[in-house]
Each structure stands twice: as C-alpha cells, then as structure tokens.
User: Which sequence fits this backbone?
C-alpha cells in the first residue's frame, strides 16, 4: 500500500504540482537554450560526482580497490533509486556483492554500517549548517528551520546511541542482547527460529568499528562530505546553466534548498525520493526568488544527471559482476 501511495505522489508531482509552478513548454525552452560550455560543465560535474561515490567505501573497507568500490556503489545506488525500500535495499545489494568477492561478513557489515551512518549524519547536519548560513546572510526559512530542528534532535539521539555503544563493552553487550530478544520475539510471531547473534556479537563488532574509526574517522568524514557536496555542485551548475543567477538564488540559498531536499529524500516514501526531492527543492528555490521556469528546468536536469547515469552504470556494473562470477 505504501508503495502505491508513493507512486501516486510521484505521478502527482510531475503531472500536477510542478506544472503549477512552471509550464513545461517554458521549461523545455530553457533546456533547449543551454550552451555548449554549460553542457560540458554539467558533464564534468556529473563525472566528478560519480567518482566520489567510491572513496567512503574504500576507507571503511580496507583492501577494496577503487574500480570495485565504484562498481559496488553504482549497483547499490541504482537499487536504492529503482526499488522500493530505498537505502536499505542498496546496502543489501552492496553486502551481497562484497561477500561474493570474498570479503568477510564482519568486515562488510562494519563498512556498510559506517558508510550508512556517516551519510545519514551528513544529511542531518546540512540543514543545520544551512540555517546558520542563512541567518548570517540575513535570510531565513521557517520550513528549513523546522527541518534543522528535527535534524538536531535525530542527530543528537543517533550520536548518543552510537557513542554509548562504542564507549562501553558492557553497554554494547546489553544492547546487543536486548536487540536479539526483540528480534527473536518478532521472528517467533512468524514461526522463524531465534537469531544466532547477541551481545557478544555486537561487542566484537564494536571493537572492529572502534579500531577502524580510531585510525580513519577523519578520512571517512572528508570522503563522505566530498561524496555529498559534489551532488550539490551538480545542482548549482544546473541552476547557473538554466539562467538562475546568484541575484535570484544565492550560493547559500541553493545550498539551503538542496539540504532540505536531501533530508526529505532520506524518507522512503518513493524510490530514490522521486517526486519528493523535486517538489521540495523546487519549492524552496522558487521561494528564495528563483525564476519559476529556470528553477524547474534546473531541478529536472539535476535529478536526471544524478539518477540516470547511476542507473546505467549500476546495470553495467551488475553485468560485469555476473561475468566476473562466471570466470
């Protein structure tokens, strides 16, 4: 049912809400007017964005080569875009591929957990930074301020929980046992056997995570920020290419609109946030003063460049993985 609601919302966004902001004929006119220098800039920004997918996984999973990390990230991101379930399905795809390549379950689980956590921390932090920058610039947004407040709350709870698990063997052991009991009860309702992990498993996992973070937390943070901010660069280049200058939407305002949409996109309403992200970022940028047709053209171009290349590369990478298994 939730999947049907998501598809209906995405369809309503493109068929009803976005045309209310700008006529598609005007939007097509903006896109047709793109110059070759701007097209090359968009291609360059897209390539850089794709290449920054891989480094966080290389940091979190020592021994993973760049080309393999790139293949895994394209497969997982393509799954998260195309399949209901979002990031969870993408992480499952990454886990499956890396296990087939011989990485141990604990190593893959640690890498998947850290990459996911650091991405979520980044998504929660961006609206907070955006509100601060808007305040310094003398601007404000009630919606963004609300998103930042929610982000602070979630970030605080998540960080406290992570800190509690990482700081103490006893806490990790007790939380692991509690989680195992909860999962066992849920599995029992559908006739499934108890899980084979518990507090000792989480304690061992904690030691692995602490050991890696002690050596690489700063590199993982920088790699995660680079991977996220290059997505914003694609949006910024698309705005300028579609004739939405800084006098209409400043750098800070563009970042604020993007950070809001980034946070909204983490909610698994539709695959890849389809419809949700477009409506969120377009509404924010038009609210900041961007020309309607230029903003919609830029947003659609931005979403095309951050989704379609990954879908194509993900499919190609999946084919390569199957051939590699056959060999």
Assistant:
């Amino acid at each position: 049912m939730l999947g049907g609601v998501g598809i209906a919302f995405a369809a309503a966004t493109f068929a009803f809400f976005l045309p209310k902001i700008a006529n598609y004929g005007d939007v097509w006119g903006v896109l047709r007017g793109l110059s070759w220098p701007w097209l090359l800039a968009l291609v360059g920004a897209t390539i850089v964005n794709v290449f920054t997918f891989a480094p966080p996984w290389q940091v979190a999973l020592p021994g993973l080569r760049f080309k393999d990390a790139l293949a895994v990230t394209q497969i997982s991101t393509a799954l998260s875009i195309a399949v209901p379930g979002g990031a969870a399905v993408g992480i499952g795809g990454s886990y499956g591929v890396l296990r087939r390549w011989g990485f141990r379950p604990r190593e893959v689980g640690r890498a998947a957990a850290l990459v996911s956590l650091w991405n979520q921390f980044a998504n929660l932090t961006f609206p907070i930074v955006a509100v601060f920058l808007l305040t310094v610039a003398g601007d404000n947004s009630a919606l963004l301020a609300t998103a930042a407040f929610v982000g602070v709350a979630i970030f605080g709870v998540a960080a406290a929980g992570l800190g509690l698990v990482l700081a103490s063997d006893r806490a990790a052991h007790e939380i692991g046992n509690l989680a195992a009991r909860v999962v066992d009860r849920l599995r029992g309702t559908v006739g499934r056997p108890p899980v084979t992990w518990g507090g000792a498993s989480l304690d061992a996992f904690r030691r692995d995570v602490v050991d890696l973070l002690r050596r690489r937390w700063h590199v993982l943070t920088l790699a995660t920020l680079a991977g996220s901010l290059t997505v914003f660069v694609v949006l910024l280049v698309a705005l300028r290419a579609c004739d939405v200058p800084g006098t209409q939407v400043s750098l800070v305002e563009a970042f604020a609109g993007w950070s809001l949409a980034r946070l909204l996109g983490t909610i698994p309403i539709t695959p890849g946030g389809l419809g949700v992200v477009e409506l969120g970022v377009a509404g924010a940028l038009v609210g900041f003063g961007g020309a309607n047709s230029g903003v919609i053209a830029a947003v659609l171009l931005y979403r095309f460049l951050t989704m379609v290349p990954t879908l194509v590369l993900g499919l190609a990478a999946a084919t390569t993985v199957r051939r590699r298994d056959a060999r």
